[in-house]
Amino acid sequence: MSRRHGAFLALMLVTASVQVRAHGLAAAFVSIETADDYEADVLIKLPQIEGRTSELSVRFADDCEALTAPTRIKRKDGVIERWAIRCERPLTGMKIELVGLNAILGEVLVEFRSPDTQGWSAVVRRGLPATRLGVRSSQGLDSRAGYLRLGIEHILSGFDHVFFVLALMLIVWRTRSPYGRRAVSKRMLATITAFTVGHSVTLAAATLGLVRLARAPTELVIALSVLLLAVELARDDRSTLTMRFPWIVAFAFGLLHGFGFAGALVEIGLPREGIAAPLLLFNLGVELGQILAVLAAASGFGVASSIAGKRRLAAGQRSFFDWALIYGIGTLTAYWCFERSLGWILG
């Protein structure tokens, strides 16, 4: 059995025994809107995760009571619940707790609107599932800065996006031999920048409602884009468009990945007013997460190359690690393509 087949078989066994998610923790959205600070309309938007919807409830103060029974609306992308409450004390400043956060449904964006508090929002996570409505953070920062962290977490926990960036870097690394170190760095920068420009354009356009694509086929094409790069790396044909001009492919598929980012942002929810700041912060978070992924990958490539040089590994031994990584990306993305295809057909 060849090293390539051995690496492929090992990765297939790992994939079969371990469930790998293309995206990280899912997020829910809670909106609380009041006209007099005592009665409020409550809305919860829960995403569908692998065909099922997690349960989430909002725990208000003990002197609050429901005025209406919750209405539950099922949609293709999840569930929406609505009801009304009345409290004996003002809602502004009230501590609420989100019950139901877990390893899958990991965070909630809470939006609160009252006559005296406009545009307040906060990100609540399972480690600290409580917040005070309308109260700014102790550091005096706008709570919308939570979108920055959401952007970072989305790309770092979304393995399909990380794998795409990693595959792009592998392509540039593979074709480095005719170029000097400075030329390779410029080529790498141009490729990553093209991906950034591409997804930034469609992220803004889709979030603002200028362009819309269905979620299921978009997620499938994103997985296919990663699989395409893995196939190109496995073929190792330096004459293809992808190998010769990786920045063109990065920009084209970056447009598609932008729709994926926008779908996550819309699913989390945006404030009704002042969309520009959360959109910018989320995109900046995505870029910061992308930079972290690039730096980590570049460091890994450098360390692996240094070890191979010091130990004078044979070409076959060095290529084994390359093939293991390539087949790992290809195997997992092929699985995601199959999973998303079934979800699209059956959904």
Could you give a quick summary of the protein structure above?
The chain has helices spanning 3-17, 146-157, 159-174, 181-207, 215-235, 241-244, 246-268, 276-311, 315-346, and strands at residues 26-34, 39-49, 52-53, 57-59, 64-66, 71-75, 78-87, 95-99, 105-114, 117-125, 130-132. It has 347 residues and is of the alpha+beta class. The relative contact order is 0.14.
Write the layout of secondary structure elements.
Blueprint: H1 3-17, E1 26-34, E2 39-49, E3 52-53, E4 57-59, E5 64-66, E6 71-75, E7 78-87, E8 95-99, E9 105-114, E10 117-125, E11 130-132, H2 146-157, H3 159-174, H4 181-207, H5 215-235, H6 241-244, H7 246-268, H8 276-311, H9 315-346
Parallel strand pairs: 1-9
Antiparallel strand pairs: 1-2, 2-3, 2-7, 4-8, 5-7, 6-7, 8-11, 9-10
Helix pairs in contact: 1-9, 2-8, 3-4, 3-5, 3-8, 4-7, 5-7, 5-9
Which terms would index this structure?
11 strands, 2 domains, elongated, single chain, 347 residues
